Structures are given as C-alpha cells and as structure tokens.
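Supplementary notes for students who missed Thursday's class. We covered one full example, reproduced here. Read the sequence, then the structure, then the short commentary at the end.
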Amino acid sequence: MKKDLCAAHYSRLRRTGWVDGLTNKPDKGRPLVRRLRRTRESVARIIVRITDRRVRPCDPDRFAGGLHTLIDGLRKSKLIPEDNPFAIRLELEAEEVSRRKEEGTFIEIIYP
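Structure (token representation):
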C-alpha cells in the first residue's frame, strides 16, 4: 500500500483512519447472517401438476419452456391466484404411453 501512494497522501490517509481500515483483520463482531423469526405460519401452496404423456417423450427443456404461457393462462382465468413460487408449487412429469390416443398434456390443480 505504501509503495503505491506518495508519502504525503499516505500520511493524510493514516491521520484520517482510512489506512487502518484497509488492512484485513477478522471481524469479531456480529455474525454475517442474521436469523429471522417467523411472524406467522406459512401458507399452504396450491399444487399445479402438469403431466406430459407422449409416445416419444420430448426433451425436458422443450417441455418446460412452453409452460410459461400455460401458467399465465391459469392465472388470468383465475384458477390460481398468483404464479409466483410462494403461491404455487409446480410439478412436472413426463410419461411414456404406448398409443397415440393416450397422448396429451394433463393439468391437475390441487388446492390445500
């Protein structure tokens, strides 16, 4: 630190206390993470289970990528109040079926 600064600048920083704050000293004070107390019980979330049944199952990222519009539609039709992670629990399943007649995307909404 002393080599990078000129002598006058370093002495001014030392007088104001800035140089002492730049050294790496362990903090013996408070912990870094504070524990929060719960003020109320958690609310039970709505379970939205989407099952994709296909003869040839598609990639998981392709299946999950198209769900944004579907979940927004559930919210706009007021089947679910919100689509944030605190209001719903989203479960995705993929099943392989033997016939094309059994193919489809099935949505289950389980209210607490």
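Commentary. The chain has a mean pLDDT of 78. Helices lie at 7-16, 18-22, 60-65, 67-76. If anything here is unclear, bring it to office hours.
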